[in-house]
TrEMBL record:
Database matches in SUPFAM superfamilies: Acid phosphatase/Vanadium-dependent haloperoxidase
Matching InterPro entries: PAP2/HPO, PAP2/HPO_sf
Keywords: Membrane, Transmembrane, Transmembrane helix
Membrane-crossing segments per the record: 27-49, 56-78, 137-154, 160-181
A Pfam entry, by short name: PAP2
Stretches assigned to the Phosphatidic acid phosphatase type 2/haloperoxidase domain: 60-175
Protein's UniProt name: Phosphatase PAP2 family protein
Domain of life of the source: Bacteria
Length: 195
């Protein structure tokens, strides 16, 4: 049963990875690079400070906790435990995978990029969504970053889906901790969630 799922996942991966064009490679390489998004992160931190003022420290801790949880569950726990080869390392796919940039580490389940992106999308939307409705588009950004990992040949679709679920879980847990911290230590009370 597991092998049938993995075989289907490989087929879906090859279909999506096959949607490539030479002119798109540099653009996708920029999208998949974590450093590309530093201006976005700085904007979000600015908006966070603008909204929560003296309680911003609570929500900065929550963001840090969110990213730490998402990344450690994905890379520290699941990748070595599941030990599923990335498509770029899979002998069955040798010569079939369009790789842009490096091949990545040996194991790919779950995608840290997907986990971190979806974690950031949910936590930002929960913290800022009432004041800035456009933050719902962060989920589209997360999906684009996640898809870029298939395009560059280093993750299967199940790696992406698993990463997204890990990220959403990490953001949900962290957000609930943030609400508790806000109630206990904050000068401004949290003004309600989005879900």
């Amino acid at each position: 049963m597991v092998e049938q799922i993995f075989a289907f996942d490989r087929e879906v991966f090859l279909w999506f990875n096959g949607w490539h064009a030479d002119f798109m490679d540099p653009l996708i390489a920029i999208i998949t690079n974590r450093f590309t998004w530093i201006p976005l992160y700085l904007l979000l931190v600015f908006l966070l400070f603008k909204k929560y003022r003296q309680d911003s420290w609570i929500w900065v801790i929550v963001i840090g906790l969110t990213i730490l949880l998402a990344d450690q569950i994905a890379s520290g726990l699941l990748k070595p435990w599941v030990a599923r080869l990335r498509p770029s390392h899979e002998p069955l796919l040798e010569g079939l995978v369009h790789i842009v940039g490096g091949r990545g580490g040996t194991y790919g389940f779950v995608s840290s990029h997907s986990s971190n992106s979806f974690a950031i999308a949910l936590i930002v939307w929960k913290m800022l969504g009432k004041l800035y409705p456009w933050t719902k588009w962060m989920f589209l950004w997360a999906a684009l970053v996640a898809y870029s990992r298939i395009y560059v040949g280093v993750h299967y679709p199940l790696d992406i889906i698993g990463g997204a679920l890990v990220g959403l879980f990490a953001a949900w847990i962290s957000f609930e901790i943030g609400v508790l911290l806000s109630k206990k230590f904050g000068k401004l009370q949290y003004d309600g969630g989005q879900l």
